Amino acid sequence: MTPDPDYDLSDPGLWTTNHGxxxxxxxxxxxxxxxxxxxxxQNLMFERPRFPDSDNIQTVMTNDASRLGTVLxxxxxxxxxxxxxxxxxxGAEYTFERPAExxxxxxxxxxxxxxxxxxxxxxxxxxxxxxxxxxxxxxxxLNKNAVGFPSERYGFSRNARGLTGPPTWExxxxxxxxxxxxxxxxxx
Length: 188
What we know:
Elements: H1 14-44, H2 54-61, H3 64-68, E1 70-76, E2 84-90, E3 104-109, E4 114-120, E5 127-135, E6 154-156, H4 169-172, E7 174-175, E8 182-186
Parallel strand pairs: 1-8
Antiparallel strand pairs: 1-4, 2-3, 2-5, 5-6, 5-7
């Protein structure tokens, strides 16, 4: 048998003989650091629940939300009482028409062709835009016809309508209403 000329008889280096151990130590340290972070977040940052006492109850009774009051959003013009009315109130232009980023959002049942929604003023910023649509088939989206126009009724604050699509933030924005006021929106 002849020796292989490419075979190196020299002593293998530290990395060659121990690369598996180095990788194992690296992965183990990642798990330890990650586990430590999770332990800290779940156990050491946890705030124990406080049960109501006379001080807590008094604080809740006199907070800003109770002093600000509510506004009533009245939505008129539903074709029927089928499905639900989707309501979103936006507090900034960059969140406009992004329901996941709305300052206040709710889904309400329709009764007699209208919907009344009490909204706490503490949930609303200084300027708002309201968007609603009648989700007649309750599928969670504003359905459109073959041409791309909405086939379900919708409306915005200031009864704004866009020419080639939805209205802009500037067309729909209003100041935060005062306590016990009513904002009417017509869906069509």
